[in-house]
Amino acid sequence: MSSSRQNPVIVITGTPGTGKTTHAELLVQESPIPLKHINVGDMVKEKGFYESYDEEWQSYTVDEDKLLDELEPLASEGGIILDWHTCDIFPERWADLVVVLRCNHTKLWDRLEKRGYPLKKIQENNEAEIMDVVIEEARSSYAPEIVVELQSEGTEDLESNVARIVQWIEAWKKDHASGDS
Fold first, then answer.
1. Separation of alpha carbons 122 and 57, rounded Å
2. Rounded CA gap, 67 and 163, in Å?
3. Nearest by Cα to 73 from 46, 36, 44, 101
4. Are β-strands 50-54 and 59-62 bridged in parallel, bridged antiparallel, or unpaired?
5. Residues in Cβ contact with 174 at an 8 Å cutoff, skipping those fewer than 6 apart
6. Tell me: the pLDDT tens digits for 95-143?
7. Backbone phi and psi for residue 14, each to the nearest 5 degrees, phi listed first
8. Which helix or strand (DSSP H or E) is residue 81 part of?
9. What single DSSP character describes residue 52?
10. What is the pTM of this model?
11. 60-68: long-range contacts at Cβ-Cβ below 8 A with a sequence spacing of 24 or more?
């Protein structure tokens, strides 16, 4: 799929609280090409792409078929950033770059506490970060050359990461320009 697209599909993933949405929003502003930010979690809630809601964990059981059916035409088009805490749901053919954001677990705990997450959910997410759950998921789902692990602990990391992704976009456009003429 990626060979015919004019613009890439970028997946930004990481444990909740690592800065996915902040990165995606800044990347939309800084990108040399138009990119649409899709906050997948918000889409699930807004479009009702879930089977149930778990009160204890304060999370949705996602209807993956409905979600993927909605995202497929957007991914085919390209020019999107998929922002979600998991990435293995997305078909390998969709992704041109998978960015896994990482954060020190103490800092992550503070961020999740500020969001008002219940203790059980903070503990689960903190454990997932410590145990490399998201990076391992990305590595097992996508070609190693498209998976990038970036630290996300403050403004300096944010700016540096977005600058790096912008450079990647410029290289991707150059590599895919030959098909345009």
1. 10
2. 30
3. 36
4. antiparallel
5. none
6. 999 999 999 999 999 999 999 999 999 999 999 999 999 999 999 999 9
7. 160, 165
8. strand 80-84
9. E
10. 0.94
11. 62/89, 64/89, 67/40, 67/43
